[in-house]
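Why show two proteins at once? Because comparison is the fastest way to build intuition. When a single record is shown, students tend to memorize it. When two are placed side by side, the eye starts asking what differs. So, the first record is below.
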Amino acid sequence: MNKIISIIANELQIKLTQVENTIKLIDEGNTIPFIARYRKEVTGGLSDEILRTLGDRLNYLRNLGTRKEEVKKIINEQGKLTPELELELENAVTLTEVEDIYRPYKQKKRTRAIIAKEKGLEPLANVIYEQKESKNIEEIAKEYINKEKEINTIQDAINGALDIIAENISDNSEYRKKIKKICYKEASIQTKAVNIEEKTNYEMYYEFVENINKIPSHRILAINRGEKEEKLKVKINKPEEQIIQIIKKDIIKQKNQFDEILEKTIIDSWKRLIEPSIEREIRADLTQKAEEKAIQVFGKNAKQLLLGAPIKNLTVIGFDPAYRTGCKIAVIDETGKVLETTTIYPTEPQKDILGAKKELLQLIDEYKVNMIAIGNGTASRESEQFIADLIKEVKHEINYAIVSEAGASVYSASKLATEEYPDINVSLRGAISIARRLQDPLAELVKIDPKAIGVGQYQHDVNQKRLEESLTGVVEDAVNKVGVDVNTATPSLLSYVSGLNKTISKNIVKYRDENGKLRNRKELLKVPKLGKVAFEQCAGFIRILDGDNPLEITAVHPESYIVAEKLLQNIGNKKEDIKDKEKLKQIKEKLSNVNIKELAVELQIGDMTLIDIIAELTKPGRDPREEMPKPILRKDVLKLEDLQEGMMLTGTVRNVIDFGVFVDIGVKHDGLVHISEMSNSYVKNPSDIVSVGDIVKVKVIEIDKERQKVKLSMKV
């Protein structure tokens, strides 16, 4: 265990005590959001991202330890476990290394070497390998001729012995370690087109070579996809001569009668046994690293999207664009309640602009609609043009915004959507989702499979189990950062709260339906299956806005209520004052001048916890998403034809990937800011500069009207 703690501390550049304490908290069943928010003193203030990485590494290293013990046991049962082998296993730092050590002791299919051993040729193989015998090889091999064992000639005996040597060389874990080290330093990946005449998305890889230690992850994933679709042939170019020389130098001691056949055997072992498996392992390793990077990018983007600023207190029309089947409309009030749904046909083929305009203007007027949320899918720009013309005729202030509709169709047909809107046609549910995404992105997006959110690259190509685990963590962190109003939240949203699962979440909603609004957090203990452990984990993330205790509109945990009340008493206030605007101003002023160190000692609480409590008491009920950039609200539409090189525009970052960012500037397709155009200084990672949802100023640097592509620059 101490070794695991040291490895993690070294990798994450944190203290041993931080790792040790965090592992203890995880093993006690605490969730990452709970540890990150309410156990800062114990972890030394580690962020949720670091805690999740720590948790992942802990799992990997524990699995590694378990596998080492399994391998040790199997080798020991064969009576072949030596102190040297035990030490080699102990020092292995990856599962691949452990499998390389285990390779010679693994039950194999009947290989040429196994057949040769069965024929009794192992002693001959040892003679050749040791190179000590002065007697002529043919004479030695002659003794092994055995018609019954199908060793009919001297050459049969020698060939069988060489097969044994070739496999032994291949199974040598030290050779494999050295070979991989050389390959990772000097090998390159090469791709060629299966059909050079065919036009595909992979044309840049038709004649392509790049060192494997430099190739970025998005190119690995693109190459893998091209190979899977049978558009590309892929191989790893390895420094073959150098590798063969290393093995030769170790095996061939001096010039002797065996050196020529040993050299041929080394080459055979390399080409037939080592190279194919090394290539597979390198490809698998490159893919795994690329997938991890893609999952990180996807997770970071998804978190930003989930934490998008809500548009509150507005009646919104959700507008789900389409052609033949018509545009679906849903009117949603400021609480998210569906007021009315309909379908209009302003786009091709019907193009009933007058009829559509009349119906929509009537809805806008009747329900005093302030905002229209347009989905960004098929027919989006034609619909946007229609809306831009329409709102000129509306008498009151109204805007529209383009909203990502990724996953809306998946949600519409889901069991959850059927439960929520049993009487509403499946095609209209997408419009409801689009409207609600603008009102509260988090509450709506948690209903959708995180993979369908659509902000990343190659998310369908990566390990789906690993992606799901990572994204579940991302959604949990986002939900718990914001907090959840227990009296309005859906089971989908509640299920991501620390300590809660789908069953408990449904039980909370059922309890609420049967007993009315919850008045305090303690009432959660009356919910079936929500015990003391779950209560401790979830309580601080649950909000009760009109309940018995004003502290429950904040993230102050019940375990700190006494401290929070003492703190307020110290400055001459009580907890009820945080709901009074005038008194809250005084509380803010007084708490801004306190001495944290002295007060923490007096209240017998950690500095970091005290700082968090003060932050909550000065901004009770604050939604952290309010600090995020608001969606760009539009009144008019921009066409590709309107763009000119050099034009300055404001846009919303829609996706951040390895090689740049895609920015919505209001034309049909998002423009690309390549990583080289993001800053005047070197940019290692686009996510260091911007996040999904950021509002950025960009300059148009190239317009490709034929391919409907726009290149942008942030060097403005």
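Second record. Ask yourself what differs from the first in the token line.
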Amino acid sequence: MRTPVFIVLFLAISLASWAQEIKTNADKYFYGYAYSDAIKEYQKDMQKGIPLSNYQFLNLADSYFKTSDYSNASKLYLEVYRKDTIMSNNRFNNMLQSLAKTSEPERVKAFMKSKGASLSSELMENANFNYELLEAPEIDNANFKIITLPINSPQADFGPSFYKDKLLFSSSRKAKSKKVYGPSGESYMDIYVGRIGNSGKVYNPNRFDGIPKSPYHKATPFYSSEQRTLFYILSNEEDGELTFDDKGKNSLAIGLVPQNGTSRFVLKDLSTSFYYPFYDAGSDRLYFAANFPDGYGGTDLYYVHTNNMQVMSEPINLGPRINTPGNEIAPFFHEGSLYFSSDIFYGKGGMDVYKANLQSDDSYSTPVNLGTGINSKADDFGFIVKNDQDLGYIGYFSSNRKGGIGNDDVYGFTISRTPGLKTLLFKGQVTNSKSGEGISGASVQLYDKEGSILKEIFTRADGNYQLEVPWRDEVTLRVYKSRHSMFSSFYQGTALDAVQKSPLNIEIAAVSEVVEEKEGQTVLRLDDFVFERGKSNIDAVISAQLDKVVAAVGQFPQIRLRIENHTDSRGSTSSNKRISQTRVNGIKAYLLKKGVPAENISSVIGYGEERILNSCKNGVYCLDFLHDQNARTQFVVLNYEDLNQ
């Protein structure tokens, strides 16, 4: 794997900043990015019997990693990891990347499992999901097509950005006014512009003159059409000279140039580099990548709140669902999704493009690898996309894959649907059917058409849930919590497509809300109803209550019922017994016709006048309303204790 030129260019650190760590010539080569020479010198030191510190062993491991010798890199990383605690999160990612490139993925998964307690739950979930996604057959390529662009040079070209009807990009191609940047051996970066043709190809690249001139880095632009303002990164400099912090470090800042306005710095810190600005006019947020020391890995994604493009907050980390022990760069939002690049170990290559959906609570769904085409075994980054009336979607990205012209090249692409591997996403809220309040800790399970469970998650404190798996044509979603009803629904075809487009909110009932105690028994809670005297036909009033029974069985599929009917004492005992039994038989037939399984009805009993509730027995005069108290139908829940566990 070739190290992306943008990483070397953007490090921009003078050797003076590492003076306290440079002890040998090998260290000098390492911190000067001469990794092959560093390997030779470290090996010479070991042959001479000069002991290496664990920090130097990690430098040597990094040098092997940067020169694609993953076998030696993984051995050294593992050796230091087992005997010391000095390994950074970013080097931990390098270790797992090395293991992934030199052994079966199962070894990396086994290592993750053994260290699961020390890794974040988000990292484990992201890894497991993307492993499964990349191992599954890709559904279709949605007419995906790569466009080779004539704007690339033998040097580094990357960081595309839409600019009106043109494309901006960064390049280190030689120019008379640009100095040579030592670590890369190429010119300092500059911004170029080209014209986008009808096919998506880009023509006539020229240096962009919409920003102030500088002999140092200017790169990764982003143009906000709403604000008519260009954001970009640039070297920290004053009066034409680079500026350094007290450790001798020069870093990169974010500047802006409003239309017909004066350029200025937006984010500047001599000890911190900022990369890849993206301004979201809807939220007034400026997103970027940065290497703050308290991040999750190398570079992380952050945002700041702005007002009239003035920074109004401290940088806010996008959190462990997005940021990892690797490097995350190049944030780009489109149609409610965040696209970004990461070199986390579970990708297809060095750096891959991922997509995560922005949720209503400002959180993100599991980042999804965009798959073959956009991503390769090389480094793929700087992804942008927009809608196209004729092609569906058109976009651009950077890559150092084989077959290119330079170190990093800009590629175009067209695709007929939203980019990314196709997944199933169920999200929404589980609420109490009576109170409407969210239910926490409910199990949300997804099953395939063979009945095997694909994934299980639990609702959050507010009842919200989100569950995502690789695409299936047929699935069943079930939601359950103890002492509550069960929701179960089968999806395929248009119903499956529809549920992807909007939240699926689910109501479940607490068992205590559908039952009550009567006559020393637990029965379904229904409105009282009576049959017309001497008759057993089911009228509209009765059927409305029986439909509630059907619904209760649907909610509690494991429920077992005994159906009881009682008459008053008017009429003969034998006729009352007979009509009572006829009624429960009719009720059972109605329920079966409505889809209630026969196993849910344990028995039906017509008691007639055997269980009179008051004194209105044979020979006793009573008013009609007192007789009506004895005429009743009950659905006795025989396994209430099981339902209430």
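One difference worth noting in the second protein: The longest helix spans residues 573-593.
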